[in-house]
Specification:
The chain has about 220 residues and is an alpha/beta fold. The protein has a single domain (about 5-210), classed as Vaccinia Virus protein VP39 (Rossmann fold), CATH 3.40.50. The protein has helices spanning about 5-30, 35-50, 65-70, 80-90, 130-140, 175-185; strands at about 55, 75-80, 95-100, 110-120, 140-150, 155, 160, 165, 170, 190-195, 205-210. The strands form three sheets. A seven-stranded mixed sheet has the order 3-2-1-4-5-11-10, with helices on both faces. Strands 6-9 form a two-stranded antiparallel ribbon. Helix 5 links the parallel strand 4 (about 110-120) and strand 5. Helix 1 (about 5-30) packs parallel to helix 4. The chain starts with a helix and ends in a 5-residue tail after the last strand. The chain binds S-adenosylmethionine.
Amino acid sequence: MTEPSFLAAVRKSYDTVAEDYAKLVPPRFATDPLGRGMLAAFAELVRADGGQPVADLGCGPGHVAAHLESLGVPVFGVDLSPKMVEIARRTYPNLRVEVGSMTALDLPDGELGGIVAWWSILHLPPEELPAVFAEFHRVLAPGGHVLVGFHVGDEHLRPERAYGHPVSYDTHLLLPDGVAELLNRAGLNVAARLIQEPGEGLKRQQACLLARKPERS
Ligand SMILES: C[S@@+](CC[C@H](N)C(=O)[O-])C[C@H]1O[C@@H](n2cnc3c(N)ncnc32)[C@H](O)[C@@H]1O
């Protein structure tokens, strides 16, 4: 099957920015207590439900997956960009990280205790989100948890440069109500939302939604 062109643009762009992204972004994550609070709640829920594996989809340089591992969650990373995967493996040699796309996961049905998509659904054309959330539902075990983070808005951005390099991806800001509706429609019941307001280094609102696949569908 021919790969959609947006995936090639995202892969090429993140391969280009990966080394500088890895220097700039993980230190910001280290000073985001609210986001890490949502990850802590997610980790506690996954552990309480038996600690099945968690996939960090669009894991970038691996810092979020490594953080989840430090919280006692068995986690592996998946990223579209081979360069990001190389950096994650180099930085966290004990972490399992694979090249792949959340649009077509190389995973069996019902295997995961959780999925984290931390600022990684933002390069999907919005019309792809229902199919991607259906894919999340497919690979999650009954009772499995999902945590998605994204920039809030209704704009479609076409940045020419990012992290000091030329890029060719599109970035789609998303509205929390819209994402919640799509998750619910995919059979992933939204249980909690965190909205962070702009300020203190945040240019725009950010949202984190926690959802769960029911025990019985
Ligand atoms: C903004 S970065 C976020 C990285 C990391 N989650 C973090 O919080 O720093 C977006 C990442 O998602 C990856 N990505 C984008 N679309 C993807 C897809 N369809 N499947 C897997 N990874 C994807 C990119 O390669 C990039 O590493």
